[in-house]
Design a protein that fits this description.
The protein is α/β, with parallel strands linked by helices. 18% of the residues lie in helices and 40% in strands. The chain has a 16-stranded mixed β-sheet that branches. The longest helix has 16 residues, at 12-27. GO terms for molecular function: ATP binding; metal ion binding; NAD binding; NAD+ kinase activity. InterPro entries: ATP-NAD_kinase_N, ATP-NAD_kinase_PpnK-typ_C, NAD/diacylglycerol_kinase_sf, NADK.
Length: 268
């Protein structure tokens, strides 16, 4: 029997939706299991989906996610709060349909020699809290540039519409297995030079960022700030793991981008 978990943000609208979900799941004789779910329904927005992803990141191989949005449609949320009945019907007729997206593999090396791995669904950034971040950037262990600026943003294709887009990065098709690095306010003048444009690397390549000054750097992984220890280097590459969504309905990636950012309607 398929096990269904619910991960809700604490707001009143989301709590109402998750209570309705719980009673309908019981009425359909589906099994509620938040510890070991096959399907994990998030109720809230993109931020809730990001939190759920990190909460369940050790169980990614088994879980398919479904996002219900209690506000407007989000990037990871295909269902609206008034569509609970339709969603329950899809769950009852589930045949394992899914779509999966690439994730970002992050390896941090701290100045004390300790290493830590993590995964990001949207992006990871490395920034300096005060002043200019100075960092050596390597691609496949080859020095690429000495970066000076606010910081760097390394994103997945589905994360390319988030922070990366604000940093001037390209929106990347979710069908590509690539990692993008975009600059956050780089300094470019006669003395200092960075490439000045976003780069996209293949699954066979990796990027390593080594801050030159170890103090006051801030690292983020999706919505979280990484523990504030001195970071010697961070290596980014496409992960071998992916996130899967139950594909009961499919909003085409470029349709979602167009509707979210442009809202264009055909002219008769
Ligand atoms: P939040 O409440 O600050 O929301 C940020 C916004 O980003 C929300 O509108 C959310 O719907 C949207 N968003 C999240 N993932 C997206 C995606 N893949 N594509 C398009 N839009 C997306 O924070 P949150 O909800 O916890 O989300 C964390 C995310 O916020 C981070 O992963 C980062 O991408 C983004 N962020 C963006 C900026 C920026 O654009 N300058 C700065 C900080 C964080």
């Amino acid at each position: 029997m398929m096990k269904i978990g619910i991960f809700s943000n604490p707001g009143s609208a989301s709590t109402r939706v998750s209570n309705a979900l719980k009673s309908k799941i019981k009425a359909e004789h589906l099994v509620l299991d938040n510890d070991d779910p096959d399907i994990l329904i998030t109720v809230g927005g993109d931020g809730t989906l990001l939190s759920a992803f990190h909460h369940y990141e050790k169980q990614l191989a088994k879980i398919r996610f479904v996002g219900i949005h209690t506000g407007h449609l989000g990037f990871y949320t295909d269902w609206r709060d008034y569509e609970v009945d339709e969603l329950i019907d899809s769950l009852a007729h589930d045949n394992g349909q899914s779509v999966s997206y690439p994730l970002l593999d992050i390896l941090i090396e701290y100045s004390d020699g300790k290493k830590q791995s993590m995964l990001a669904l949207n992006e990871s950034t490395l920034k300096k809290l005060t002043g200019t971040m100075l960092a050596n950037v390597y691609i496949k262990d080859q020095l690429f540039e000495l970066f000076r600026g606010d910081g760097l943003c390394v994103s997945t294709p589905t994360g390319s519409t988030a922070y990366n887009k604000s940093a001037g990065g390209a929106v990347v098709s979710s069908e590509l297995d690539v990692v993008q690095v975009s600059e956050i306010a780089s300094i470019n003048n006669r003395v200092f030079r960075t490439l000045g444009s976003p780069i996209i690397i293949s699954p066979q390549e990796w990027v390593r960022i080594e801050p030159v000054e170890l103090n006051e750097n801030l690292m983020t992984c999706d919505q979280k700030v990484v523990e504030n220890r001195q970071i010697k280097s961070v290596t980014y590459r496409i992960s071998k793991q992916r996130i899967a969504f139950a594909q009961y309905r499919h909003t085409q990636f470029w349709k979602r981008v167009s509707e979210s950012f442009i809202g264009v309607k055909p002219v008769d």
